[in-house]
Amino acid sequence: MIHIDGSAGEGGGQILRTALALSMCTGQPFRMSNIRAGRKKPGLMRQHLTAVQAAYAITGSQGAPVATGALELEFVPGVVAPGNHTFAVGTAGSATLVLQTVLPALLMVTQAAGADESPMESTLVCQGGTHNPFAPPFDFLERSFAPVLRRMGAKIGLTLTRPGFYPAGGGEMLARITQVPKLKHLSLVEKGALVRRRALVLLACLSRNIGEREIHALQAKLSWPKDTFELKEVAGATGPGNVIIIEQEFEHVTEIVTGFGERGVSAERVVELAIEKVRRYEVAAAAGAVVGEHLADQLLVPMALAGGGEFLTMRPSRHSVTNADTIRKFLDIPIRFTQRAEDVWHCVVG
Amino acid sequence: MAEKTGKQNRHWKSPSHRSAVPAPKETRRASTKKLVVIGLLGPQLDRSTGPDRWNMWRPSVALCQHEELLVSRFEVLYQQRFEKIATQVRADIAQVSPETTVRSHYIEFVDPWDFEEVYGALLDFARGYPFSPETEDYAVHITTGTHVAQICLFLLTEARYIPGILLQTSPSLRGEDSVGTYSLIDLDLSRYDRLATRFHQEKEESVSLLKSGISTRSASFNALIEQMERVALASRDPMLLTGPTGAGKSHMARKVYELRKQKRLVTGEFVSINCATIRGDAAMSTLFGHIKGSFTGAMRDRPGLLKAADGGLLFLDEIGELGCDEQAMLLRALEERLFLPLGADREVASNFQLIAGTNRDLQRDVAEGRFREDLLARIDLWTFRLPGLRERAEDIEPNLDFELEKLARAGGDRVAFNKEARDRYLAFATGREATWSANFRDLNASVVRMSTFSRAGRITVEVVDQEIERLRAKWAVPGSTLGRGAECQDEGTDSGRTAERVQAEAAEIVASQTVTRPDLPLPLPDGVDPENLDSFDLAQLQHVIHVCRQSRTISDAGRALFAISRTRRRQPNDADRLRKYLIRFGLSWESVQG
Predict the structure, then answer these.
(1) Cross-chain residue pair B98–A93, CB shorter than 8 Å
(2) What is the pLDDT of residue B591?
(3) Cα separation, B314 vs B324, whole angstroms
(4) How far is CA A152 from CA A184, A311, B377, in A?
(5) How far apart are alpha carbons B140 and B154 in whole angstroms?
(6) Secondary-structure percent of chain B, ordered helix, strand, coil, rounded to 5
(7) What is the distance between the alpha carbons of residues A326 and B564, in angstroms, rounded to a whole number?
(8) Are the CB atoms for B70 and B35 separated by under 8 Å?
(9) What pTM does this model have?
(10) Which of B207, B209, B213 has its CA nearest to residue B403?
(11) A254-282 burial by CB neighbour count: b if 16+ within 10 A, else e?
(12) Of the partner residues A70, A91, A204, the one whose CB lies closest to the CB of residue B65
């Protein structure tokens, strides 16, 4: 039984999600203690319980009941079975994080499933928040993460049925995942030529004026062509929401930065915070970095499962370092970050 | 239904309020039991439409939006006219809290500020709700509804009509989000002395529950009932009910059970047995159960009464009749909550509350070695002596009415006294002549007989006069056939059965009018307690003793007693037959000679 100290490093829910994902992929049970011990509300929150239940659902097994606030968890995975599932996250919690938890296990043919030659498809309906701060928003998964996974050989299709924002939630996304025998090594050391860029403002159930101010502020900060700015009023949203998505698509990688409108925070300030992140990437990219902070974080698990990969990125976040430590508990694979320039780090998996 | 605004709401937990009442202990929830919230819909606070409602603090929705508070079920109470708000709230909870099942309950008040009305409506809800505290935790949301409704919910929770904790929600301080905060308050962990005094009235109701069926005007009996109520609610220790036969011990044990059940202090069954009916080998297996094949005739496992009372209440009447082995086993079951069924090699656990009944002097039984001292010490922590009916003469009239009412309810026709008959009966019943030796059983039987002999629903002076004669005769003869039959059976409170029995007796009396009653028996020898004998045995024994005392030798007596059957025997040994008969009652030839 693998033991994981949940208070290690960054000490958040990411340790749990990575552990669940790799436990399912490798069939190794684990026991986690001090879950989210460093947080203001320690222990498991409802969205974590949903992630655990989702993990049990796709491995067709059942664990002992777990309460919110629990600091310990024991997870014994069953055999991964592709299929159709719906996972609903409460409190407008991130539906993308639940997807992130079960995705690796459904991507790769694992354990006994290899006997059957036919590809095995899963359709997941994930409900809850699709655009949450502190979680990869749907647009990031669709246009930044999924394309890289496809280059590694993954077969994955993502569709947004309707967006869901905090606090109302009610969003829904669809993921079609086909199992493949093996993920390929991938090297992301060049971003290639710029293909497209755009700054998108999503607005739901809020005054158009907010969006217009954001567009205006974005135009002032980014000296991009006029037709790269777009204000999109979202139909079908169940509650108010406002997201800024700044997207730079290169030949080999797409960098997406997001900003979230919040009560009591001016439209201009929301733009300012997002632009800061864009600038940080641009500075690192000028020195040779390819992969942005968030994508780097997401790539570690698939690359470790593929048995190798490398990319040039920005200074690894604490999140990434903790994630790498968790991965090494399940997979005997080195993950190294080496500084190459002031803002450029080389990450080598395997 | 009006309610306070969010701003006033915060006042509920303002410092001034807190200083009046000791700060409640707030609990963090880390239970794997399902959490069920019970709350009123707030027609003001929960009312909001359009997308902007997500920017408003709506307590009923907000309480389902906390990332660490998982509400498995939400029982929402509201007046039907607020259906539209409820529909919106249900839909929004489904969205933000797919883990929560919302169930709607209509609750109607004409005036939501009327204490009595609101309390009554909420009490009805609480009483009708199938609480299952073993599998679910309950939290009562007290933020919505009128102040009156909030206080009523508080009272119901404190009085444990709702076996839960309080859930208080409040908006975020600076309005930065619409979810706000909450606190869970466990009243068991805090002292609400001031508010507790408000429950006094509430407690009256519990007391009247214990009394129900035993109407009382007697101040001393009232005081006794109040003490019992306090003990019943506060303690799971054994209780010992003493008092003469028919004083209502079994009835009182059941009432204690019902009270505890209503307050959800007990989850199991009420199991009752008269130990005098299970003497001998059967006692062990009846009480403690047996394993299939543990003795001849044990065809299958039998769990036994102690197991049947697991989580509930076991009433052992006539506990002094228990044999030594059973006493020892019972003591262990009380102290360790474990006992060994017959033939079993593993002990069985049962967590029951014991109420014991006796009309014997158990202290004397201990002194004479018939009852275990340690068992008595264990069961007489709370001893209540139920007075006989004679000591409660002022209660005879209300009980007479109660018995008549009970008969009518049991399906019989309504029967009433005419005025003269009633006066005459009461005068006798409360007079010096009436000993009421079997207490409530005598009264019950008497009423059943009179109603059987009544014509067209009227009990006339003639019927009363005949009944008075019957009662006189009964009380003049200790242990006569009249009424004795009931005493040696399990105390069933089933009035239908009792009525049947008494009616049969009444019919027998009518039929036997011409039969002359036997001579009054001689006093019984020491060691024979007529209270513990079936009337069948008693009549026979009295005759046997009578003959013995008139005979010179045991052989003479035997010859007289077995005059017919001895002629059919090849070797009549009358003396031996007689000796063996006497031994069954603990008697010998010498002792009957007295």
Answers:
(1) no
(2) 81
(3) 19
(4) 5, 13, 79
(5) 8
(6) 50, 10, 40
(7) 99
(8) yes
(9) 0.60
(10) B213
(11) bbbbbbbbeeeeebeebbeebbebbebbe
(12) A91
